[in-house]
């Protein structure tokens, strides 16, 4: 695989990005994935890095990871939604306009906060402000805050009419699976759910599971690879 550090221009400055490409990347053919980080981590999160490496080494897709502006500044408080969405759009444009290997089909995704922003960008496409996508890759979608199942975060999913993959840990306090399943089934294009048994919000598993974090990351990355292969145009 080939990795390049890129600088992404956003309102008020720049943010870091890492573009991971297959050595066999075919311009205009190989799919691409924009992959955003969660609220308390950055583009170097081990899960995101593992997914990017797996997809590139398998020749499945190019992956662009990037920092949201608040993380680039060293802040612990996420930016307002318009800033997050603006950064996501700029990252998307960098991937699409890559001079070495512009992608064919483009997928949007992320971990937790990044998953929410990715879904929002697809929904906002219908309002003339979002992004076209061949599919959504949502890793640990934050359906609700811990203990607040009465306040579901359904807004970003209001107009999702592309194939979507939800990867969720069975012990994730941010996502009650009994609430998620019917919601996925009611999307304009019903989504696919993959469960990480005993997994938490970042898919961490107890030692008693007999699996390492690398085992889990490889499993998740393989599921993402199959989803992209199935839905790439």
Describe this structure in words.
This protein has 233 residues and is an alpha/beta fold. It has a single domain (2-231), classed as 3-Layer(aba) Sandwich (Rossmann fold), CATH 3.40.50. 32% of the residues lie in helices and 21% in strands. It is built from six helices and eight strands; from the N terminus they run E-E-E-H-E-H-H-E-H-E-E-H-E-H. The protein has an eight-stranded mixed β-sheet with strand order 1-2-4-3-5-6-7-8, with helices on both faces. It is globular and about 45 Å long. The model has no long low-confidence stretch (mean pLDDT 95).
Task: Itemize the secondary structure elements and their pairings.
Layout: E1 2-10, E2 13-21, E3 32-36, H1 46-57, E4 62-66, H2 69-73, H3 81-96, E5 106-111, H4 113-125, E6 135-139, E7 164-169, H5 177-185, E8 192-196, H6 213-231
Parallel strand pairs: 3-4, 3-5, 5-6, 6-7, 7-8
Antiparallel strand pairs: 1-2, 2-4
Helix pairs in contact: 1-6, 3-4
At CATH's second level, what is the architecture? 3-Layer(aba) Sandwich
Mean pLDDT: 95
Q: What order do the SSEs take from the amino end to the carboxyl end, as H and E?
A: EEEHEHHEHEEHEH
Q: Tell me the structural class.
A: alpha/beta
Instruction: State the strand order across the main sheet.
Output: 1-2-4-3-5-6-7-8
Shape call: globular
What is the count of β-strands? 8
What portion of residues is helical?
25-40%
What name does the CATH topology carry? Rossmann fold
How many separate domains make up the residues? 1
The largest β sheet comes out as: 8 strands, mixed
CA-atom Rg in angstroms = 16 Å
CATH superfamily: Alpha/Beta hydrolase fold, catalytic domain
Determine the number of helices (DSSP H or I, runs of at least 4 residues). 6
At the first level of CATH, the class is Alpha Beta
Show unreliable segments.
none
N-to-C terminal Cα separation, in Å? 23 Å
Strand content: 15-25%
Oligomer: single chain
């Amino acid at each position: 695989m080939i990795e390049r550090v890129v600088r992404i221009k956003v309102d008020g400055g720049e943010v870091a990005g890492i573009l991971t490409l297959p050595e066999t990347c075919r311009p205009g053919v190989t799919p691409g994935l924009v992959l955003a980080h969660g609220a308390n981590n950055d583009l170097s999160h081990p899960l995101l890095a593992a997914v990017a490496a797996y997809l590139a080494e398998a020749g499945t897709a190019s992956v662009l990871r990037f920092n949201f502006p608040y993380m680039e500044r060293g802040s612990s408080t996420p930016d307002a939604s318009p800033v997050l969405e603006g950064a996501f759009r700029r990252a998307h444009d960098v991937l699409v306009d890559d001079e070495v290997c512009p992608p064919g089909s483009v997928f949007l995704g992320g971990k937790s906060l990044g998953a929410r922003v990715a879904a929002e960008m697809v929904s906002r496409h219908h309002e003339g402000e979002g992004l076209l996508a061949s599919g959504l890759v949502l890793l640990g979608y934050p359906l609700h805050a811990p203990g607040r199942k009465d306040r579901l975060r359904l807004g970003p999913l209001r107009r999702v009419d592309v194939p979507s993959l939800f990867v969720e840990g069975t012990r994730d306090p941010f996502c009650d699976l009994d609430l998620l399943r019917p919601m996925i089934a009611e999307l304009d294009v019903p989504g696919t759910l993959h469960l990480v048994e005993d997994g938490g919000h970042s898919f961490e598993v107890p030692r008693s599971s007999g699996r390492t974090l690398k085992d889990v990351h490889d499993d998740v990355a393989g599921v993402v690879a199959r989803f992209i292969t199935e839905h790439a145009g």
